[in-house]
């Protein structure tokens, strides 16, 4: 354990990461001073599997419209799904409502600050719980997303990003400095997002290039490069098209308008059934479809 800690301190220098972050951080709305823990939680859920540039304007609308968990918890599900728009994976919006309702019911409307309590909230996983504890409350806990995993794998182990594992949380925990830990954590994430990227890393401007084991090893590639997940023609695309019809409708939608959303009847039926099963759509007694209320 002591050997690993010494190696980590040598390679990922907190002072370099923090100074780089202060000079290069993106101007994201949820990083503004005074952002509430609820605002941080919203930002983390919205930007999961979604580019932050797409999430930022919608986050701004939401935090003005629903500035507290209590305000959000009492909102109709159809209104929430319309406001979610085309962010993708709309089940996140349903879980956010459940999460807000739990915060109101069990925590007096205040977002919890410790990791274990956050993990007990609906829809909150390892990454989001630690991100809220760290970035909203200043807890010096490891926050491990794909960007952090990539930076640590390269700089510390001289390896390309491999499969995720629980041991990575312990590894990142050893990296954390006693001072300015949360700023170091967000700096690691930002470095992976802007410089130490998956396909075109900008090693020439990296603040820890002199210490990087991956660069010294000649930038070895992963054994099995990850294939990009296609979107066009998938059930997910069809679900999105049906959801758009429902979001934009002023009332219940007849079957024919659903049919017009996608030509393949079998795939359309499968996508529609999955939306009904996931609670993202409902069918009334007349056979019309609408967002859940």
What does this structure look like?
The chain has 293 residues and is mainly alpha-helical. Among the domains are: 23-137, Endonuclease III, domain 1 (Orthogonal Bundle), CATH 1.10.340.30; 235-288, no CATH class. The protein is 56% helix and 1% strand. It has 16 helices and two strands. The protein has helices at residues 2-11, 14-24, 37-46, 52-65, 69-73, 77-84, 91-107, 115-119, 126-137, 146-157, 167-175, 181-194, 213-216, 235-248, 255-259, 265-277, and strands spanning 282-283, 289-290. Strands 1-2 form a two-stranded antiparallel sheet. A hairpin with a 5-residue loop joins strand 1 (282-283) and strand 2. Helix 3 packs antiparallel against helix 4. The relative contact order is 0.11.
CATH topology of the domain at 23-137: Endonuclease III, domain 1
Strand order of the largest sheet: 1-2
| Main structural class | mainly alpha
The CATH superfamily of the domain at 23-137 is: Hypothetical protein, domain 2
Distance between the termini: 53 Å
